[in-house]
Specification:
Blueprint lengths: L1 E5 L2 E6 L2 E6 L5 E5 L3 H9 L28 H9 L4 H4 L4 E12 L20 E2 L2 H14 E11 L6 H14 L4 E6 L6 H10 L2 E5 L4 H7 L9 H13 L4 E7 L1 H5 L4 H12 L5 E4 L13 H4 L6 H5 L5 H21 L6 H12 L13 E4 L5 E2 L13 E2 L4 E2 L1 H15 L18 H8 L8 H23 L7 E3 L1
Parallel strand pairs: 5-7, 5-12, 7-8, 8-9, 9-10, 10-11
Antiparallel strand pairs: 1-2, 2-3, 3-4, 4-16, 5-6, 12-13, 14-15
């Protein structure tokens, strides 16, 4: 594979095709080549009216810096005004895209890689009562100009359908266009649950880790039984009631040990669940050689089983291979008009099609707030139970402003002055999970998994070039085409 960086372009060529991305505008040019030299010649022939001229002199150093700058105090304040943290650190109202509420500090499964302490978040087992959930919603509503979506979380939130129902009724009365979502293990589908989901148009994200053997090994019930068969039954009931659902899969060490690849999972979900665009991500567990500080071993989400979770860490190189192959398969499936597609690939294609730049690395610290089952406030639900990330209690109307400001400054200074945490060539297509990064590395500054994202974006660019080269084969295969 040939790669070259020359601002503002990133060039990648492989297998007879070349793709050139203007990383500032997200415009793209593609072409065909029979050799690496043909690719270089094709790049040199690019029309300057379509793309800036590319300097390919021997030994050219990449223009794009890998390092990121620490934002200034003014930048930190400006970013705060535009974020979901504005009410807590500046006393200013803003729009909240997503409010996540943990309504169930309990779960009926016992997943091996669970960052939620098996649904308990290092607290007592309990369900949030409707009156507390309504107070949380009302208190939060007063802080924001609007709320786009309420995300019910757990543990297993479908253990608590009465609270879901109560919040949905109140939320629709206040914000008629509000949406609702539930992240669930998919094992519960009682008549009451089905009625609540259907009545309020609640969308489900169902956690399934693939075929029954690998899924059941990682996601058994509390009693040790498999959960896969029950999920299949529930999915059928959800479909019959017209309830919208999608699949989320956590790729983990058990898949590698069972010789199940990310590409295999794409094929499986498409064939068995008719789910063409599953969200498949890797498990966020601590690095094997993590040097924890700032109370990580005492307060982190894996504080009770840190060493065990470290043993299940998958190397980034292994993940790059897995997700590059799956991204390549995704692009082939798109060209063929059938087969599974990684959600990461679809999102990248959509951004390129609309030339829409990423304005945030992830919703945490930018467009969401998460409320624990006791009313504690966090920037992300993956921080539930970590006291270092708590900024107060919404139920008691107790906002710890100095603490919120301290957490915001820590995040802002460690994360960088870039919206997506990097200045690398794919920064405007960047995505990630800041809480997952923190769980794996103990800091906001380490973009441990960015090379996986780079591999996915490269495969999207090459896939587009291959598609265009096939279409152009009968005309001029050596020319470049703007797409």
């Amino acid at each position: 594979m040939l790669r070259h960086e020359s601002y503002p372009n990133y060039i990648v060529a492989d297998a007879g095709v070349v793709s050139i991305l203007d990383c500032d505008t997200l415009s793209l040019a593609t072409g065909a080549s029979q050799s690496q030299q043909d690719a270089l010649n094709a790049i040199r022939r690019i029309d300057p009216a379509v793309r800036h001229k590319v300097d390919l002199h021997a030994g050219a150093d990449p223009f794009f810096p890998v390092a990121v700058d620490t934002p200034s105090d003014d930048d930190i304040r400006l970013r705060a005004r535009q974020s979901s943290f504005a009410p807590f650190i500046l006393g200013q109202r803003s729009y909240l895209n997503r409010l996540t509420i943990n309504i169930a500090n309990s779960c009926n499964l016992w997943c091996s890689y669970c960052y939620a302490d098996h649904g308990h978040y290092h607290d007592t087992k309990h369900l949030m009562k409707p009156d507390r959930a309504l107070r949380i919603f009302e208190q939060t509503s007063r802080l924001y100009d609007g709320i786009g979506n309420i995300h019910f979380f757990g543990g297993e939130p479908l253990l608590n359908p009465k609270t879901i129902d109560a919040v949905c009724i109140a939320a629709k009365a206040r914000f008629p266009d509000i949406g609702f979502a539930v992240t669930t293990n998919g094992t519960l589908a009682t008549p009451e649950i089905l009625d609540v989901l259907s009545r309020h148009g609640i969308a489900l994200t169902i956690s399934i880790d693939g075929p029954a053997p690998v899924h059941d090994a990682q996601r058994p019930t509390v009693s040790g039984d498999g959960s896969h068969a029950k999920i299949c039954q529930s999915v059928e009931l959800f479909t019959q009631r017209g309830i919208e659902w999608s699949i989320e899969c956590t790729f983990n060490k058990a898949h590698l040990e069972a010789d199940v690849s990310v590409s295999d999972l794409l094929r499986y979900f498409d064939a068995e669940f008719n789910e063409p665009v599953p969200h498949i991500a890797w498990s966020y567990v601590p690095l094997k050689d993590l040097v924890a500080d700032d109370g990580y071993t005492k307060n982190g989400v894996f504080r009770d089983d840190l060493e065990e979770q470290q043993q299940s860490f998958i190397s980034v190189d292994q993940l790059i291979t897995q997700f590059r192959d799956a991204a390549r398969l995704s692009m082939q499936n798109i060209a063929a008009g059938s087969g599974g597609v990684l959600s990461f690939v679809q999102d990248t294609l959509t951004s390129l099609q609309l030339r829409r730049k990423s304005d945030a690395y992830c919703p945490a610290f930018s467009s969401q707030i998460s409320i624990g089952s006791n009313g504690d406030i966090y920037p992300c639900f993956m921080f539930f139970g970590d006291p270092r990330m708590c900024i107060g209690n919404i139920d008691r109307a107790n906002i710890d402003v100095p603490r919120a400001q301290e957490i915001w400054r820590k995040y802002s200074r460690e994360f960088s002055d870039s919206a997506t945490g990097t200045q690398r060539w794919f920064r405007n297509l960047g995505f990630g999970c800041i809480a997952g990064d923190y769980i794996s590395t103990g800091t906001f500054s380490n973009r441990l998994y960015y090379d996986i994202q780079e591999a996915i974006v490269e495969e999207v660019l090459l896939g587009i070039a291959q598609f265009e080269a096939t279409r152009m084969a009968k005309t001029d295969s050596g020319s470049l085409k703007a797409t």
